[in-house]
Design a protein that fits this description.
With 345 residues, this protein is mainly alpha-helical. It is built from 12 helices and 7 strands.
Length: 345
Amino acid sequence: MRRRLRPLALIAAIVLAIGGAWLFRERRDPARGNENARTRSSSSSIVPPPAPVVFDLRPPPAPEPHGGATGPERLPHSLQETDVDGWLGVDDRGHLVVTPGARRFFDYFLSAAGEESPEQIRARIVAEIEKRLPPLGAHEAIALLDRYLAYRDRVRELAEAGTPEDLEQRLDQLHQIRAQILGDADAAAMFGDEEKVQRLDIERRQVLSDGSLSPDQRQRQLDALDQQLPADVKEARDQALAPLNLARQERDLRADGASAADIRALRQQEFGAAAADRLEALDRQQAEWQQRLQDYRTARRAIDSDSSLTLEARADAIAGLRAQRFDAQEQIRVEALDRIDSLNH
């Protein structure tokens, strides 16, 4: 099976210098065409743009030979055995449909910088565009590529010249450059959702640092900001935060005297019966571990308080106690906990 490459290394290196990686992280493409409009990348996530209806006038190219040869040339080493990322497609009139997938498509090949010259990389991207799109769409995609390359050069120049310390000013600066070089419509299509997330993240930081807010006020404002996220980002964030949210709800329920049945009901409501069963099994394992650890510490304290033992004999006795009560992996964990405990006393 061909491995998948996430081609963010080069663009991340450029943008990190001018504003922090969080301002420039790539996200999954929110624009999806039909099945024929995708590249070989099986995990692309594309949702249709508002209008027009998107489809490709040509099928995607057949998989390339093993090793990733393109024409007479082989792909750079870093791209061999990988799938082309991103997506290119046209509408029913053959015009290019610009989405974040176009940027990911360009970045896939641009990630080979250092292995090939800029001219070679551009020629390779042009050849790939012409394989995938009809003449009109290909012409527009190549023009977009050249504007995108100019944008990257401008960002590099800014990084070398220095940029504002304020995160919002940096984002404003990038927004202006994108609009100037790519045009308002294409800049919005390629970066719009990402910029929205970045601005909301700035607002989140402001809310979190506002000492005048009560915990309830802060949480309400954070929830309101989350509701403004693009749907796919909100879904991904909700999934990532679900365990933390569940733990917080369980803590609040237990503080109010909730029973084990109440905790199970919450878990089942949030994640289903099977997940509730697994969480209960984890609870039992954790309780068993804590009991074993407590018993070990009680026995260790008895050894530590035995004045008849030399330091060496005491250390040997504690090591023997660990070996008796824990397996090899657990002993590593217990030793680490013992070191932390000794630093705190």
